[in-house]
Amino acid sequence: MLIKFFLLFLFLYNNSVFAESYIKNLEIINDTGKLVQYHVEIAKTNEEQTKGLMHRLDLKKNGGMLFLFDTEKKASFWMKDTLIALDIIFINKNGSINKIHNNTRPKSLKRIKSKGEVLAVLEINAGEAIKNNIGYRSFIDLEKFISSY
To answer: How far apart are CA 86 and CA 82, in angstroms?
Structure first.
């Protein structure tokens, strides 16, 4: 009987953890007008945003994490407990690119900041922004993410 309760608890716990992990496809129109898709986890809550991609050993190709804020704000990130190099893309409310920080250094304490207020930040594998021609003329439609949360 005790085993049944334990298995039920484990099942419910795993489902609640999974329910908090939002995964969506993010479409980017890159600098050459080509569509690039990323399979991203959405970090919406303060807890999810604080944890981010910390302690992970890898990130799948064309995978990433989208930090979606309730309102526009000046964003600041660091790599203290992040073990993989990333490209960090700061996104304005209108979907334009605010700033791109390429090839961050894992475990660095250096602050990586937006140029003013942004509504979202995308973290992807280091080198993918350049490889996929993601730059200051790129566009990321945030509307479907805003309406989903």
So the answer is: 9
Q: Whole-model pTM?
A: 0.83
Considering the domain boundaries, does residue 6 fall inside one? no
Per-residue pLDDT, averaged over 70-98, amounts to: 96
Q: Into how many domains does the chain fold?
A: 1
Dist CA 40 CA 7 (whole Å): 30
CATH number at residue 90: 2.60.120.1140
CA 40, 44, 46, 50: dihedral to nearest 10 degrees? Answer: 10
Whether residue 34 lies inside any domain: the answer is yes
Q: Where are the alpha helices (DSSP H) in 1-149?
A: 2-20, 46-51, 128-131, 143-148
